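User: I'll paste a sequence; please echo it back and then give the predicted structure.

Assistant: Echoing your sequence first, then the prediction.
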Amino acid sequence: MHPENQALIVIDVQNDFCPGGALAVTEGDAVVPVINAMLDEFAVKVLTQDWHPANHASFAANHPGAAPFSMTEMPYGPQVLWPTHCVQGSTGAAFHPGLRTDPADLVIRKGFRSAIDSYSAFFENDRKTPTGLDGYLRARGVTDLVLTGLATDFCVAYSALDAARLGFAVTVRLEACRAIDLNGSLAAALDEMRKAGVALV
C-alpha cells in the first residue's frame, strides 16, 4: 500500500524543455523513464504543465530588442526573458511523448496569465496568486511531497520552496530532475532548498 499522505509532483516534462525544444534542458528527456518508474509508488500523482499564451510578458520576443535570457523588471520583481516556449496548444507545450500521463490524478496548468510568469506549481511569480494545488493536496490529505521534473533550478526549486513555506515535508529526487543552470542558478537553488529544509536525494 502506498501512504495516502504522499504525493508525487512531476514538474513540466514537456517537449520544449527536452532536447530539440525551444528551451531545452540538457538531458531533459533522461528524467522520463525515471519518473515513469516512480508513478506507481504514489497514492497521489500530479503533473504540472507550463501553458503560456503567445503574448506572454516573459517572452523575449514580446520585448522589442531584448535578447533571450536577459533580465527585465516586472511589477512583481526581476524576470528572465525566455525564448518563446510552451505556447498553449503547441507541440512544444505537450508532455514528452514517452511520459506516462494516464496515471496522473491531476494536471495543473500554470503561466496562463499573460502579465505574470509562473515557475512554481503553487504560486505565480508574484508569490501570492495561487494555482489551487495547495488546496487540492490538502483536500486529499497530503502532507509529504516528492518533486521531480524540469528544471531543477527554476520550476522545481520554486515549487519546492513554496511547498516548504506552506508546511509540506518536501523531497526533491535529483536523479529525476535536470537543470538549466543559468549563471550558477543550480548551485544557488540547491543551497536555497537545503536552507529551507527540503531533502535533496
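The mean pLDDT is 96. The longest strand covers residues 169-178.
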